[in-house]
Amino acid sequence: MKNLIKQLTLTLILTVMSLSAVQAVTPRGRLVGATGLARGGSDVTFTWAMPADSPSATYKVYVRVPTNGTATNALYRVYPKGNLTGNTVCSSTGTTYPCFEVSVNQATNQGKWLLLKLGTTVQWKMTNAAYVTVNPLTLPATEMLSVAAVSFDMTPALKIGQTYQGGIIFYLNRTRQHGLIAAAKDQSTGIQWYNGSFVSVGETSWKVGTGKTNTANIVAKQGAGSYAAKLCDDLVLNGYSDWFLPSKDELNLMYENIGQLAAAPLTNAGGFVSSYYWSSSEYDNYVAAWYQYFSNGYQDYYSKNGILYVRAVRVF
Fold first, then answer.
1. pLDDT at 15
2. Is 197 exposed, middle or buried (0-12, 13-18, 19+ CB in 10 A)?
3. Which of 157, 184, 205, 220 could hold 210 in an S-S bridge, CB 3.0 to 4.6 Å?
4. What is the mean pLDDT of residues 98-117?
5. What is the model's pLDDT at position 294?
6. Closest-CA residue to 133 (of 56, 50, 10)
């Protein structure tokens, strides 16, 4: 009787909310893996939590149906704002912790990605506490619930050149939810790389994703003073204080994506001058570091006592 009441309640919610799933192409969002197989009637819950570093935004939710799933009414629960510990009630009208249930016919969608759908709406406003669950308790014992990955796709997708979190996006990773932001203006029109004497930092890299570490290593080695890396490290701009001097390859991405080389309409969306900009990448440890000439994109090394432009960046 208890299970019957539960089934009737779920059916009512589904009817009111017009929830369903539609076949979709392979998503490009944050993939969360939680594979498993359970027979109908089993009281086991599979959970996919939104990655903790995800921003609060609007997301589409995709689920992957393995080829051995035979559940005809797998009920996926979407908790856009998380849930209270111990709360088992799923209510779409809840204001603090709303919950939505979506019916998925795994038997007819084996091997497919499905977009969870709420009426004509295919997206939810979510926080990083959001998660998705599914449980085979109400399924017949003759059916098997099979689960794989869930993808959280931010919409509208972030894009290169967009003003976001204190600056201008100039790089996005595969998920298109994280990347690098450049300050909208130069932090200096002329400052040296070194702090008055030639010392070897010895722990810098060219690669994308290393500028923040490079900057920390430079400041740790050179200490207090007025120089390129310290200027970025001390910067507080538009509410953010985690700026750094870009690595050689990060600097080049700015030139290519929002600098003079970028295709219209993003050609020099970053407002760079046709001059020389420091990177946080050393060339030969002691004497020189890499720079880039934003007039033509040329990269070379220059003495650390040179006076060049600086543009700070940050990770998001």
1. 30
2. exposed
3. 205
4. 93
5. 98
6. 50
Written out in words, the top-level CATH class of the domain with range 163-315 is alpha beta
Chain segment 5-16, per-residue pLDDT in tens: 333 233 333 333
Q: Whose structure tokens read 């990347």?
A: 179
Structure tokens at 17: 């909310």
pLDDT tens readout for residues 234-274 = 999 999 999 999 999 999 999 999 999 999 999 999 999 99
**Integer Cα distance of 4 and 262 in angstroms:** 61
Q: Quick check: do 2-155 and 163-315 share a fold?
A: no
Place of tokens 């208890």: 2
Task: Count CB atoms within 10 A of the CB of residue 35.
Answer: 11
Residue 12 to residue 40: CA distance in whole angstroms: 21
Domain boundaries, the chain: 2-155, 163-315
Cα 108 to Cα 65, 137, 219, distances in angstroms: 10, 20, 59
For the domain bounded by 2-155, which CATH number is listed? 2.60.120
